Amino acid sequence: MGNRWDSITDNLPGPAQLVYSMSIQSGDLFAGTSEGIWRRPISDIVPVDYINDYPGPLSFKLHQNCPNPFNPSTEITYTLPKASTVTLRIFDILGREVTTLVNERKEGGRYTIVWDADGVPSGIYFYRIATGDFTESKKMVLMK
Predict the structure, then answer these.
(1) How far is CA 79 from the centre of its chain?
(2) Which end of the chain has fewer CB atoms surrounding its CB within 10 Å, N or C?
C-alpha cells in the first residue's frame, strides 16, 4: 500500500492529467500538473462539518530556524491552524527585543520569514511567537 497513485480527474480542466505535486494552503488544495496549477477549496471536496469537527494535522507550531547556527540570515517557519493575530519577535540573551518580524493577522497555514541579522553582533538569540491561543520560544545562534 502507498506505492501507487490513482489518476483522479474530476473537475480538473482539460483531458486526464497526472498530478505531480499537491499542497494545502489557507483552506485550498493545490495540484500541480503538466498543464499548470489547479486550485480548489477543500470545503468543495470535504464536507464543511467534517472540517470544522476534525482537528486535522495542522496545529500551532514554531519550527526550529534553519540554518542554525547562521550567518547572516536564517528562515523561521511557523504554522497556524486558524486565522490569528501573530507577533514574532527576536530577543537577545538579556531579553531585550532586537526586532519584530511579524505583527499582523494571518490566515491559517504555514509561513516562513527570513531574518537578516546583518549588523547584529554574534551571539545567542531567542525568537518567540505569540497568538491569542499559543506562545512558544526557541533559541538560535548567530555566528559571524
Answers:
(1) 4
(2) N
pLDDT of residue 66: 94
Residue type, 130: A
Listed by start position, the domains of the chain span: 1-54, 61-142
Task: Pick 1-54's CATH classification: 3.40.710, 3.10.450, 1.20.120, 3.40.50.
Answer: 3.10.450
- Euclidean distance between CA atoms 114 and 71, whole angstroms: 12
Taking the chain, what is the end-to-end CA distance rounded to the nearest angstrom?
Answer: 48
- The domain 61-142 belongs to what CATH superfamily? Macroglobulin (MG2) domain (2.60.40.1930)
Distant-in-sequence, close-in-space partners of 68: CB < 8 Å, separation ≥ 6:
74, 140, 141
Give the pLDDT confidence of 35-59 residue by residue, as tens digits.
Answer: 777 777 777 776 655 555 554 446 7
Cell output for 36: 499548470
What is the spatial distance between Cα 31 and Cα 123, in angstroms, rounded to a whole number?
42
For the stretch 56-88, pLDDT in tens is 446 788 999 999 999 999 999 998 988 899 999
